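Researcher: Quick test of sequence recovery. C-alpha cells follow.
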C-alpha cells in the first residue's frame, strides 16, 4: 500500500452513501477519511484479522475471497467503484470473514471503524443506506445459495452475468473485467466448463464478448 493521502469532499460526493449530505457534514467526513492506492494483486485485508476500518472503492476493482488449507479459492463477489466493505465490523467484534484482494490498481477511501460509527450516529440517512446495503448483500447470498443448489452451470453463469451487468447506452453489459477463472470460482465450477458454457452462449447469440465488456441479450434471462 502507498502512504495515505487526504480525501476531498468532491471525491466523497461520488459515493451514493454520502450523496445529499451538507457541505459541513462532508467536510467532517473528509477530515476523518484517508485514501490509499492498492497495487494489483495486493491484499487489503485478510480473513481472521481484526476489523479496524471501513473501506469504500473510489477507483479500481477488488475480489472478496475465502480459501481452504489447500489453497483452493472461492470468490464471493467482485467489488467495483462506489462499493464498500468492512461495514459489518461495526456490528460486533468478530474477525474478518474473508480476504479482499485488488484485481487492478485501486484507490480506497478508509475510515476508522469508530469514526464511521460516529458518522452513522449523527446521520440517519447514511445509517439507513448501510442497512439497505447489508440487506442487498443478504439477498445476494440467498440467490447464490439457491443457484448452487438448484441450477446447472449454464444457469449459474447466466445469473452471475445478469447480476454483474449494467445498462450502457441502451445495452445490458458486464463492464467489469472478469476472467473465466474468476467466474468459475464464483459459481463453483471448473474454468474449462465455464469456457464451454460461454462459447455456447455466444454461439446461441445470447452474449457477445467485446472490447467494452460482455454484452447480454434479452433471451439470456430464460437460460
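Model:
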Amino acid at each position: 500500500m502507498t502512504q495515505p493521502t487526504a480525501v476531498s469532499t468532491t471525491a466523497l460526493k461520488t459515493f451514493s452513501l454520502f450523496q445529499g449530505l451538507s457541505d459541513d457534514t462532508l467536510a467532517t467526513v473528509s477530515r476523518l477519511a484517508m485514501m490509499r492506492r492498492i497495487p494489483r494483486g495486493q491484499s487489503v485485508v485478510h480473513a481472521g484479522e481484526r476489523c479496524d476500518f471501513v473501506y469504500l472503492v473510489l477507483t479500481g476493482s477488488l475480489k472478496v475471497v475465502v480459501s481452504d488449507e489447500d489453497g483452493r479459492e472461492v470468490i464471493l463477489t467482485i467489488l467495483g467503484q462506489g462499493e464498500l466493505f468492512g461495514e459489518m465490523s461495526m456490528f460486533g467484534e468478530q474477525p474478518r470473514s474473508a480476504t479482499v484482494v485488488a484485481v487492478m490498481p485501486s484507490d480506497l477511501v478508509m475510515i476508522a471503524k469508530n469514526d464511521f460509527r460516529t458518522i452513522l450516529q449523527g446521520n440517519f440517512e447514511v445509517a439507513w443506506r448501510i442497512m439497505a446495503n447489508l440487506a442487498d448483500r443478504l439477498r445476494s447470498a440467498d440467490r447464490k445459495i439457491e443457484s448452487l443448489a438448484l441450477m446447472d452451470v449454464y444457469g449459474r453463469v447466466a445469473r452471475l452475468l445478469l447480476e454483474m451487468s449494467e445498462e450502457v447506452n441502451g445495452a445490458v453489459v458486464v463492464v467489469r473485467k472478469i476472467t473465466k477463472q474468476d467466474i468459475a470460482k464464483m459459481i463453483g465450477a471448473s474454468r474449462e466448463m465455464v469456457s464451454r458454457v460461454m462459447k455456447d452462449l455466444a454461439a446461441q447469440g445470447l452474449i457477445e464478448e467485446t472490447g467494452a465488456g460482455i454484452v447480454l441479450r434479452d433471451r439470456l434471462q430464460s437460460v
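Helices lie at 9-12, 23-32, 113-122, 124-150, 153-164, 180-187, 191-203.
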